[in-house]
Design brief:
Layout lengths: L18 H5 L8 E2 L2 E2 L1 E2 L10 H14 L9 H21 L7 E4 L2 H16 L5 E5 L8 H10 L2 E5 L9 H7 L4 E7 L11 H10 L3 E5 L11 H4 L3 E5 L10 E5 L1 H6 L10 E5 L3 E4 L13 H17 L1 H19 L5 E4 L8 E6 L4 H9 L3 E2 L1 E3 L4 H6 L5 E5 L6 H18 L1
Parallel strand pairs: 3-15, 5-6, 5-7, 7-8, 8-9
Antiparallel strand pairs: 1-2, 4-10, 9-10, 11-12, 13-14, 14-17, 16-17
Helix pairs in contact: 2-10, 3-10, 4-5, 11-14, 12-14
The structure holds ligand C6P.
Ligand C6P binds next to helix 4.
Length: about 425
């Protein structure tokens, strides 16, 4: 087989954690921005992509581009095999019992919309309650609000403590026989709080409710076991876990998915279609995958999960915790800087505001020094409003970040603050 235009990956990762070696997998990390070496600290928005994942696209389109599940020819077979192989990799990555429970979507956002429009529309009505944590990303708020407007159920908010940890006593008190669903992220994108989702799932189930866990910020940083958590639904995006944009995952328990109606109709998701007798639907997971999916993206996501497993999620998690501790210590030395989100259990996200310096200005100026951080509300406006701010600066770390980069970031931040104050 020919691998034209495919660059050989440098992917030997051995213990101890070899961050210099690992960085070689990411061509983008070699680039400069405004004449300065790129320091990429916006990983919660999207992580960078290893060369072996980038190569999937050249390989797929150069060698076996074909529509899946429908053709009998060799290319269609190869594409189908690679696509379904990626599904199996996702299954293993989150320890789902069956690959039938792994639905490919366009991203985390689409996965929430799928559950809201399929499960939500058929299981929620006036008098019911849906609990949504204050830490949620808009993607796990707005689909439920849209549905509540139509169906008349009530949304209640699980509050947070001052450190950004969820108030578990309040959560227990909010759970009643009216609660049908709990919406919570595994890790908060805005503050980095790691939520006790296993305990929350158990409490939800005791109350007779389901739980949907937003794993968009957890899947890249820690081992996820949907069976251990006992999540009813678990969601994540490919582009935050070293994969491409345009693909995400919905895991759902088979017993739930089986009885949920399709939410989009079209090819791929049917068994038979007739004007006289109507339509019958395909078995899981295809019932929820109408139309031609993002085939190359799904295969590339499988490769990204290979890369992540090869480095090791435990090793990545430990490394990122070191970066979190170091960056927190360094940032705390800056006058007038306040970190939002200081919960005991945190992933490698540091959100902060600086007295006398607007977050937006910091973001723009620090970019001139080659440092990419995110500024704004991080699609978590209710959380930021609760803490009395409209915007923060957020540095978020990935497997390839280094202490040297944190030094550059903190030095650059000091310069920028001096400029704007
Ligand atoms: N957060 C961030 O900078 P999509 O856009 O569908 O891939 O992911 C949405 C999403 C859902 N949940 C959480 C916890 C998220 O962090 C995100 C995306 C990005 O924080 C973009 S706002």
């Amino acid at each position: 087989m020919s691998h034209t235009a495919v660059v050989t990956p440098q992917s030997a990762h051995q213990a101890p954690y070899n961050v210099a070696k690992l960085r070689e997998d990411f061509p983008i990390l070699k680039r400069e921005v405004h004449g300065k070496p790129l320091v990429y600290l916006d990983n919660a928005a999207t992580s960078q992509t290893p060369i072996e994942v980038i190569n999937v696209f050249a390989d797929y389109y150069g060698r076996y581009n074909a529509n899946i599940h429908r053709g009998l020819h060799t290319l269609a077979d190869e594409a189908t095999e690679a696509f379904e192989g990626a599904r199996e990799k996702v299954r293993a990555f989150i320890n789902a019992p069956s690959s039938r429970e792994v639905i490919f979507t366009r991203g985390a956002t689409e996965a929430f919309n799928l559950v809201a429009n399929s499960w939500g529309r058929t299981h929620l009505s006036a008098g019911d309650e849906v609990l949504i944590s204050m830490l949620e990303h808009h993607a796990n708020i707005v689909p439920w609000q849209l549905l509540a407007q139509q169906l008349g159920f009530t949304i209640k908010v699980i509050p947070v403590h001052a450190d950004g940890a969820l108030d578990m006593n309040a959560y227990r008190a909010l759970l009643t026989e009216r609660t049908r669903l709990v919406c919570v992220n595994h890790v908060s994108n805005a503050f980095g709080t790691i939520n006790p989702v296993k305990e929350m799932a158990s409490l939800a189930h005791q109350a007779g409710a389901l739980i949907i866990v937003d794993g968009a910020q957890a899947a890249p940083h820690q081992r996820v076991d949907v069976q251990d958590i006992d999540a009813d639904f678990y969601v994540f995006s490919g582009h935050k876990v070293y994969g491409p944009t345009g693909v995400g995952v919905l895991y759902g328990k088979q017993s739930l998915l089986e009885v949920m109606p399709p939410w989009q109709g079209g090819g791929e998701m049917i068994d038979t279609v007739s004007f006289e007798h109507g339509t019958t639907f395909a078995a899981l997971p295809h019932k929820f995958e109408a139309g031609t999916p993002a085939i190359a993206e799904v295969i590339a996501l499988g490769k990204a999960l290979d890369w992540t497993e090869n480095v090791g999620l435990d090793a990545i998690g430990e490394w990122e915790q070191q970066l979190l501790t170091y960056s927190t210590q360094q940032l705390q030395t800056i006058d007038g800087l306040r970190i939002l989100g200081t919960a005991e259990h945190k992933a490698a996200v540091v959100s902060f505001v600086v007295e006398g310096a607007h977050a937006q200005d910091i973001g723009l100026l620090i970019d001139q020094l080659g440092v990419a951080v995110r500024t704004g509300h991080h699609c978590a406006q209710p959380l930021l409003h609760h803490f009395g701010v409209e915007a923060t600066c957020r540095a978020s770390f990935a497997a390839y970040n280094t202490r040297d980069e944190i030094d550059i970031f903190v030095t650059s931040l000091r310069r920028v603050i001096d400029m704007v104050r």
